[in-house]
Amino acid sequence: MQKFGDNHTPEKLDAVEDYLKMYTQALKYQDFELVYFDGFAGTGEVQISGDRNADGQFSLWLEALPETEFSELHDTKSIIEGSATRALGLERPFDKYIFTERSAWKAKKLEELVSRHPHITAEISVVDANQRLLEFCAKTDWRKTRAVVFLDPFGSQVEWSTIERIAETRAIDLWYLFPAFWSVYRQISQEGKMTPEQERSICRILGTDEWKADWLKFEPSGDLFEQSRVVGHKQVDVVQITRYMIGRMRDVFHGGVLDQWLPLGPKKQHHFSLLFAWANPSDKAKLAAKLAGHVMSRK
Ligand SMILES: C[S@@+](CC[C@H](N)C(=O)[O-])C[C@H]1O[C@@H](n2cnc3c(N)ncnc32)[C@H](O)[C@@H]1O
């Protein structure tokens, strides 16, 4: 089993599951092959911990360890169904499931889970989610297929180019757990400093470097004796970073991107923003936005 999560995890998974239920119901009479793509699939089970996970960083390093190596950290607070279990258990399942999970031991657990659903067509790949998604977007006949993609990374794994390819299909609905706090906000110091690698990572997530001009202000120090000194300030918060990402996604999603998002994180801190975008520009596809908005408003 994988260990991470807090009270925000069920909130996130309930939202996506509720959407999947409505999606498969709404499209049941349409002549499309329906695909569910879970890019960061995990094991199918999530252990919700208590106070230890109050610090999101703890979850990050704990997650990197195989289960056997942190048995002493094992606590059995409560186990909930992860995204894969929920999607496979839908009353009206998708025609096809694609799971990518970079960790081999987790993929093995997923195989066990999938084997309990012999009537379901599912593929599990131990690869980087971006790589498999690019292939999926390029090789699928989008005249005959509709898909929901769920991207639930811990950090900065989702590349902007992947978001663009998803949008170009004009057929995918995307749920993206955008890591606004740890992977963007916290990478920049209050003085507007970051390492070249941190800067590159933010650019990979946002697909541009224009954020620097908007978020960082540099001005000469007011101190007369230090005329050459320049003082920097970070002038952005997590909400503004989320709005910036929504704006970036609006440039490429011809359907749209919801204005609304679910702020998620341990102890009600806003670490992640669960975003929803739909790539299909047709009027009919606006139903997707209505369903997603409904799901978010109930949380
Ligand atoms: C937050 S967990 C996902 C949890 C899952 N959605 C669930 O509900 O059980 C993120 C998962 O992504 C996996 N992962 C990390 N980087 C990845 C990558 N580049 N491609 C695919 N999976 C990755 C991790 O091993 C981890 O299991």
Task: Give a brief outline of the structure.
With 299 residues, this protein is an alpha/beta fold. Helix content is 36%, strand content 20%. The strands form three sheets. Strands 2, 5, 6, 7, 8, 11, 12 and 13 form an eight-stranded mixed beta sheet that branches. Strands 1-3-4 form a three-stranded mixed beta sheet. A two-stranded antiparallel sheet has the order 9-10.
Question: Can you walk me through this structure?
Answer:
This protein has 299 residues and is of the alpha/beta class. Helices cover 36% and strands 20% of the residues. It has helices spanning 8-26, 56-63, 83-88, 104-115, 129-139, 160-168, 196-206, 211-215, 238-252, 286-297, and strands at 2-3, 33-38, 45-48, 78-81, 96-100, 122-125, 145-151, 172-178, 216-220, 230-234, 256-257, 262-264, 272-278. Helix 1 runs antiparallel to helix 10. The model is unreliable at 51-56 (pLDDT under 50). Residues 2, 13, 39-42, 46, 82-83, 100-103, 106, 128-129, 152-154, 157 line the site of S-adenosylmethionine (SAM).
Helices and strands in order:
Elements lengths: L1 E2 L4 H19 L6 E6 L6 E4 L7 H8 L14 E4 L1 H6 L7 E5 L3 H12 L6 E4 L3 H11 L5 E7 L8 H9 L3 E7 L17 H11 L4 H5 E5 L9 E5 L3 H15 L3 E2 L4 E3 L7 E7 L7 H12 L2
Parallel strand pairs: 1-3, 2-5, 2-7, 5-6, 7-8
Antiparallel strand pairs: 3-4, 8-13, 9-10, 11-13, 12-13
Helix pairs in contact: 1-10, 5-6
Name a few traits of the molecule.
single chain, 299 residues, alpha/beta, eight-stranded mixed beta sheet, three-stranded mixed beta sheet, 10 helices, 13 strands, globular, binds S-adenosylmethionine
